[in-house]
Design goal:
Elements (H helix, E strand, L loop, with lengths): L1 E6 L1 H4 L14 H9 L3 E6 L18 H11 L4 E5 L2 H5 L4 H15 L4 E6 L15 H15 L7 E5 L15 H17 L1
Parallel strand pairs: 1-2, 1-3, 3-4, 4-5
Helix pairs in contact: 2-7, 5-6
Length: 193
């Protein structure tokens, strides 16, 4: 059984303030260790978009391109996708992003388990944050509502994080504790998939 994880800086394990969390803390690496000896392939990249139109086709930042190339090599038993934050930050509309995510992931759920981890943001007015636009909170909530209102194929799960998972320093990236909690939730979903 193989698992493919594709994502942005939260999948890469970017640590707010600079650097990268240790592998012992990063959620994809925790999933890999817990599911050994299963093959878990991790494709996390800082600044990755879901929509290739925002970054130019073919680059590492093109999430759809990475997904297509990865699926051409192997259809995993489980696909976990954590993208959309950079798309929203770059101004891609919620409805456009929701359509793209749904139209890509819903058909894949016919061949494998798909877990879509939805973007999350904290309201910068509620804390002392270095950055993080207030409108991003509403965009993340609207994206979650849109996707969760659509017909849900049996093998597709939208995973919405919790505010407690997000590092207050920037309001967008996971804290170390958030990585641990996300890993536990993903493992629970994989086990029941």
């Amino acid at each position: 059984m193989s698992i493919l994880i594709i994502g942005d800086s939260n999948t890469f394990g970017y640590q707010p303030g600079g650097g990268r969390y240790l592998a012992a803390d990063r959620w994809p690496d925790r999933v890999r260790r817990a599911l050994a000896p299963r093959q878990v392939r991790i494709e996390g990249q800082n600044g990755r978009f879901f929509s290739g139109t925002l970054c130019g086709a073919g680059g590492l930042a093109d999430g759809q391109g990475v997904l297509r190339r990865s699926l051409a090599l192997d259809i995993p038993a489980t696909l976990i996708l954590q993208l959309g934050t950079n798309d929203l930050l770059a101004g891609l509309g919620v409805a456009v992003l929701a359509d793209a995510l749904y139209q890509t992931l819903a058909p894949l759920a016919e061949t494998c388990q798909v877990i879509g981890i939805l973007p999350r943001a904290l309201d910068p007015l509620e804390g002392d944050l270095a950055f993080g636009p207030a409108w991003m909170v509403q965009a993340c909530r609207a994206l979650a509502r849109d996707l969760q209102s659509r017909p849900l194929p049996a093998n597709l799960t939208w995973l919405e994080g919790e505010d407690a998972w997000i590092e207050p320093f920037d309001g967008i990236h996971l804290s170390a504790g958030g990585h641990h909690q996300l890993a536990a939730r993903v493992l629970e979903l994989v086990a029941h998939g």
